Structures are given as C-alpha cells and as structure tokens.
Amino acid sequence: QVQLVESGGGWVQPGGSLRLSCATSGNIFSGYAMGWYRQAPGKQRELVARITFTGSTNYADAVKGRFTISRDSAKNTVYLQMNSLKPEDTAVYYCNSFPWIPTWGQGTQVTVSS
Predict the structure, then answer these.
(1) What tens digit of pLDDT does each residue of 69-92 get?
(2) What's the order of all strands across the beta sheet hosting 3-7?
C-alpha cells in the first residue's frame, strides 16, 4: 500500500526558505519519476517540480531558479528546497509520482507572508 508523508512546511516571510520532505512507502518511489504539487486556496492542484528516477529535473516557470527538487533512493524520500519564497507560493504542498496516482498524503502547508 502506497503511503506519502509530507513535512517541513510552515510560515516564512517573503524571501525566506523552507525545505520540504516526502517520505514514501509502497510501490511508488523506485523506478518512478516523482513530483511536488501544490494547491492554493480556490485553485487547482498544479505540478511545480518533477524528478526522474535518474535525477533529471523539470520545473514550472513560476518556481524555476528558486526551487530545487531532489531524491534520496536509500531513504525513499523526495525533497523540495524552496528559496526566495513569495506570497504567491502560499499553498498546501503534496508529493506524488509523475504522472500522479490517486493516492495523496495530507500535504504540508506553506504560508509566505509578512
């Protein structure tokens, strides 16, 4: 059974940084591309970053140059380093495979405000 547990969110001022973690279990990590998604209030969930099982990465234009996705195969964990955060980055952040499967974790709230 797939489980996804996101952590590391919180409140930060504009320009600050956060590092999100996603611990995975079940048949979702090994050999699969993984992604970080976010959903802001009143908006649809969107993909912000993805990483293949070989480590190739791709980012949404809104976060390019500020966010970095990585993965640790020994720990079955995906990370998202977020720098230079903006108020528009405020959202609940989720990890999942790419393409996503219909199993989601609880997400982790990121709030960027002064």
Answers:
(1) 999 999 999 999 999 999 999 999
(2) 3-7, 18-25, 77-82, 67-72
